[in-house]
Amino acid sequence: MSQRVPKNVPVPPWGLAVAAMLSVQLSSALSVDLIASVGPAGTAWLRLSVGALIFLAVARPPLRALRRRDIPVLLGLGVATGLMTIAFLASIERIPLGTAVAIEFLGPLTVAAVRSHSARALIWPALALLGVVLLTEPWAGEINLAGIGLAGLAAVGWAVYIVLTQRIGDRFTGIGALSLTVPVAAATAAVVGIPQSAGHLNLGVLSVAFGLAVLMPVLPMALEMLALRRMTPTAFGTLMALEPAIGVLLGLLVLHQQPSLTQFGGITLVVLAGAAAQRGGRRQPHTREPAAARTDPDLISQGPK
Q: What is the SS3 string spanning the chain?
């Protein structure tokens, strides 16, 4: 007598989110060699272009569902994604991966704190900022202002991304929205990416770009989308505080970037800030999926680096 295999194997939403973060940071760490070949903008353009082709292949863009008021938001979301990706990749060309992720994380953590409507919640972005100061060690005299500034620009881009995705809300289902916004992000990155990578493209570079695109944006966006359906906005957003720690770990394992004890302390503060800001558990699934992930601590009523 045959046994029935359950259709749905329960996977903890936090497990999906952590898997997504691992995929993102592995893609970032492995992108360093590609950045050396085609530049940060060229790398962003290649990754986003391949990602866009994959999303278009597996999902039909919901063009018939578009309303006129959706178009500026979707275009803005795509542009923000493209600029954020370029800024982040340019930052990890100059500063350690974990430091760049910690600085970038200030964007979503601040948005989550502000939207909590509690003055006490602002303590956690302040604590994370202190952690970033320990990470950058400005007293050491070797601070890379360009790298920090680019990571800060990525943080602003991530915050804008969150706000715009909140505007989209549950208007579009699943990866259908990604088939609209990721091509716009790729086109945005192409403005600088094509000139930067011109003359350096070959089959090897394209193969690497394909693998990196699967790691980011394709796989984490899908995983985050699933996680967002079963978690509260703040729980999901602040869980991303683990990302700097994962960035440090992969920076150590893949890029051999050895942080100091002070920098370990800074990472700990950033992670603690996110954990302390976290507010609880799961949400009931909506009938429609979020527009995207990567990642919005305040979508649910929020999509890439």
A: CCCCCCCCCCCCHHHHHHHHHHHHHHHHHHHHHHHHHHHHHHHHHHHHHHHHHHHHHHCCCCHHHCCCCHHHHHHHHHHHHHHHHHHHHHHHCCCCHHHHHHHHHHHHHHHHHHHCCCHHHHHHHHHHHHHHHHHHCHHHCCCCHHHHHHHHHHHHHHHHHHHHHHHHCCCCCHHHCHHHHHHHHHHHHHHHHHHHHCCCCCHHHHHHHHHHHHHHHHHHHHHHHHHHCCCCHHHHHHHCCHHHHHHHHHHHHHHCCCCCHHHHHHHHHHHHHHHHHCCCCCCCCCCCCCCCCCCCCCCCCCCCC
Evaluate whether 232 touches 74 at the Cβ level (below 8 Å): no
Give phi and psi for 294, each to the nearest 5. 60, 65
Asked if residues 27 and 216 have their Cβ atoms less than 8 Å apart, the reply is yes
Q: What φ, ψ does residue 94 adopt, rounded to 5°?
A: -120, -30
pLDDT at 9: 47
Q: Are 37 and 203 in contact (CB under 8 A)?
A: no
- All residue ranges of the chain with pLDDT < 50 are 1-7, 9, 280-303
Question: Are the C-beta atoms of 91 and 140 separated by less than 8 Å?
Answer: no
The whole-model pTM stands at 0.87
